[in-house]
Amino acid sequence: MRCDKLRPYACEHNWQSDGPKTSGPAGNGMKMTATAPWTTEKPTALLVLADGTVIEGKGIGATGKVQAEVVFNTALTGYEEILTDPSYLGQIVTFTFPHIGNIGTNDEDIEDLTPAARHGAVGVIFKADITEPSNYRAAKHLDAWLKSRGVIGLCGIDTRALTAWIRENGAPNAVIAHDPNGVFDLETLKAEARAWSGLEGLDLAKIASSGQSSQWVQTPWIWNEGYAELGADKAKYHVVCLDYGVKRNILRLFAGLDCKVTVVPATTSAEDVLAMQPDGIFLSNGPGDPAATGEYAVPVIRKLIKTDIPVFGICLGHQMLGLALGARTEKMHQGHHGANHPVKDHTTGKVEIVSMNHGFAVDTKSLPEGVEETHVSLFDGTNCGLRVAGKQIFSVQHHPEASPGPQDSHYLFRRFINMVRGKKGEAALAER
Ligand SMILES: NC(=O)CC[C@H](N)C(=O)O
């Protein structure tokens, strides 16, 4: 099937990014199979969904093709942080905001620890073509940056239509392909999109973990950015971060709370973690299916939570903590990806607007006795947090570090440090 399926969701704008604008009623101008309007030549990029849907566009970024899951992100800002969030490994991000790339890119706004390893989204879809960057911090055009990171991109389509399609049908498996000459073997691409087994059952945390391969960094290693004056060595508390694809801003926020952070690979044993004598243990975010990490991460976490050391998990770390406690995780229909999601903290009754990026969730009904749901999504009621009764163990599904996104949930870092302080007999910091 071609893209007629997308027609019912056409917006009032023409779907082309650079072509002549049409002003007809909703639905007019939606012609996904037309020859690309920005040129007289044929399309230079294709998005081929597993059901055979073909979306033609203009190629940007790296050339080649890749199998991945297509998701949409509704954040208005922070494209560089989004695309370098290692949790997006194995995914193509469709930005619902139409103009992406206007401020270019720089070396400071990345979220992955090992840029050379290019952990992060493998593909991107934009509505408009990338314009020349206009920002004093811009060091590189987004197109060149995508190329350098090996991210394959497509622009010039109605991303609202694609987003609506995903909302209706769920995040699809797909192949994104970019060839400057517009030469594609459509049947092969369709077969590859169909053949990809998807993120369910796929363990990517081991790949995204910075220390997993000595090719990138020596491990364990000490984070050293974001300290007010003194370096990590002078920090008061010691947090060991199990790195399943951790974002930089998480580590920065720990640094800002006077923590030295030792980052260890995803497969580090519980004994090795405990030998580092941490005051607190952090379970990071990361890509892939949490249940697929059952062989290494979950058994380690199960041992760590038997101690009395405070434990805090974010996103993948939250899901794996849930598994270690005996709960189940499940694949979501379309997932949550954005910077404007309302979440309620049951422990305070307050609502926070948060950053989200997940396609799996902890099944609330499966939480065992003694494990309490602390946070819930006000969009769809899915679980967004848990804590263990009588222990200093908690985790959240959303991204309190944001980057990009609102900082409403920063208090969760203080909640964790207060557990550490409490154990040392120190007074608690104000949470908010
Ligand atoms: N941001 C994350 O840690 C994502 C966790 C997991 N890979 C998911 O998609 O649900």
TrEMBL record:
Task: Say which domain of life the source belongs to.
Answer: Bacteria
The residues covered by the Carbamoyl-phosphate synthase small subunit N-terminal domain are 43-177
Q: What class of enzyme is it?
A: ligase
Q: Which Pfam family, any one of them, does this sequence belong to?
A: GATase
Residues binding L-glutamine, per UniProt:
87, 286, 288, 316, 319, 357, 359-360
Which parts of the sequence are annotated with region: CPSase?
1-237
Write out the catalysed reaction: hydrogencarbonate + L-glutamine + 2 ATP + H2O = carbamoyl phosphate + L-glutamate + 2 ADP + phosphate + 2 H(+); L-glutamine + H2O = L-glutamate + NH4(+)
Catalytic site: 315, 399, 401
Its Enzyme Commission number(s) read 6.3.5.5
Cite the GO molecular-function annotations of the record: ATP binding; carbamoyl-phosphate synthase (glutamine-hydrolyzing) activity
The pathway to which it is assigned is: Amino-acid biosynthesis; L-arginine biosynthesis; carbamoyl phosphate from bicarbonate: step 1/1; Pyrimidine metabolism; UMP biosynthesis via de novo pathway; (S)-dihydroorotate from bicarbonate: step 1/3
Q: Which UniProt keywords apply?
A: Amino-acid biosynthesis, Arginine biosynthesis, ATP-binding, Glutamine amidotransferase, Ligase, Nucleotide-binding, Pyrimidine biosynthesis
Q: Where is this region: Disordered?
A: 14-34
What SMART domains does UniProt report for this protein, alphabetically? CPSase_sm_chain
Q: Which GO terms describe its biological process?
A: 'de novo' pyrimidine nucleobase biosynthetic process; 'de novo' UMP biosynthetic process; glutamine metabolic process; L-arginine biosynthetic process
PROSITE patterns attached here?
GATASE_TYPE_1
Q: What does this protein do?
A: Small subunit of the glutamine-dependent carbamoyl phosphate synthetase (CPSase). CPSase catalyzes the formation of carbamoyl phosphate from the ammonia moiety of glutamine, carbonate, and phosphate donated by ATP, constituting the first step of 2 biosynthetic pathways, one leading to arginine and/or urea and the other to pyrimidine nucleotides. The small subunit (glutamine amidotransferase) binds and cleaves glutamine to supply the large subunit with the substrate ammonia.
Q: How does it assemble?
A: Composed of two chains; the small (or glutamine) chain promotes the hydrolysis of glutamine to ammonia, which is used by the large (or ammonia) chain to synthesize carbamoyl phosphate. Tetramer of heterodimers (alpha,beta)4.
Stated family:
Belongs to the CarA family.
Name the record gives this protein: Carbamoyl phosphate synthase small chain
